[in-house]
Amino acid sequence: MINTAKLHGNRTVVLGIIAIVAILFLTAVFLFLNLPDANAFNNRVERLFVENADLTAFADIKLLEILAQSGTAFSETLTSYRIVIFVLLVFATALMVTALVFLVTIIVLNRRISEVERAGIQVSSLMISREENTVYLNNMEFKLTPAAIETISVLAEARMDEDVLSGAEIEGMISGRPSSDCEEAAGATRIKRLRDSLGNQMVSELLVKNIARRGYMLSIDKDVIRMV
Q: What strand order describes the sheet that includes 140-143?
């Protein structure tokens, strides 16, 4: 499932990059085709020289020289505009491609997190040592308080029996009282303290599942549980 999401994300990135580059390339072609010719002004000045060869007065010649210089300045300015437009288009392409990559990455990560949340944490071994007040979860070691050890031990025993415990039942099993005499909030408090003791939010939230209107359970295979 994760590989499919990754493949879909990579395909989306490639198609998005191609689309962005194609759109900006067409935009650049349209802009450059519609920009005036850099030599247009010079060509007009040249025509003035050719069509007005009888202008021999000093003032007339001076005016034509000024027009020629203006044409050269216009040509250089338009050339610089073309360079600026090209740089801006390249910069815009880079920004849009980067934004697309980050967007798709976020979407893929969100999908992976959702898949992990639906599947639960993948636990290959869970060993509870009451003497050491320690829980060994896969290759991770968690030092817990005695109260937290009692809570996770009750949950582990219930999981091996495929039971779901309410907060009142958890409190009753730990305190030794009938669950009818215990409050739901007391068991919920024990679950919260267990999660706080585990520390890692993702591990604790996925390991100890809260089933609406039913209670709490360990979201792992009962065959991987060991208690010593």
A: 140-143, 134-137, 126-129, 225-227
Per-residue CA distances from 149 to 109, 143, 172, 185, 190 (Å): 33, 9, 15, 19, 10
Distance, C-alpha 150 to centroid of its chain: 38
- Name the phi and psi angles at 220, rounded to 5: -140, 165
Q: Which residue has the tokens 């992990």?
A: 116
Each residue of 66-90: pLDDT tens digit? 666 666 666 667 777 778 888 888 8
What is the C-alpha R_g of the chain? Answer: 37
- Specify whether the CB–CB gap between 216 and 170 falls below 8 A: yes
**Residues 182, 186, 187, CA angle at the centre, nearest 5°?**
90
Q: pLDDT tens-digit profile of 183-193?
A: 889 888 988 88
**How far is Cα 110 from Cα 127, in angstroms, rounded to an integer?**
31
Sequence-separated (6 or more) residues with CB below 8 Å from residue 179: 166, 168, 169, 171, 172, 173
Q: Which residues of 106-118 are buried (b: 16+ CB within 10 A; e: fewer)?
A: eebeebeeeeeee
The residue ranges of DSSP E strands in 67-179, in sequence order, are: 126-129, 134-137, 140-143
pTM score over 0.90:
no
Tokens of 165: 């415990």
Residue at 111: amino acid letter: R
